[in-house]
Design goal:
The chain is mainly α. Helix content is 73%, strand content 0%. Helix 1 packs parallel to helix 4.
Length: 89
């Protein structure tokens, strides 16, 4: 779905599309996106534009989806110190 190595314009457009669907899409569409992105939460959170998608996941996901994202952040021990601090504060 999101590839950090795709051409910059394609990456930006795909991220913009994901944000749009997360904001205005149906619940099952949001759920599919959040489930697919769950394994990339930490990596995407560290990217200037991809972090906006993760933010929309938290804003528009239901409680179970937010829990899934949080569990992914907590489970990954490498490179997520800043994210853990944000969750605590």
């Amino acid at each position: 779905m999101f590839d950090m190595f795709m051409p910059p314009l394609a990456a930006y457009c795909s991220l913009f599309l994901l944000q749009h669907v997360l904001e205005r899409g149906k619940a099952h569409e949001r759920s599919q996106i959040i489930t697919k992105l769950a394994g990339q939460v930490v990596t995407m959170s560290q990217n200037k534009f991809a972090s906006n998608v993760i933010e929309k996941c938290f804003q528009h996901g239901d409680i179970a989806e937010r829990d899934l994202l949080i569990m992914q952040i907590v489970a990954q021990t490498e490179g997520n110190d800043n994210l853990l601090v944000c969750l605590i504060v």
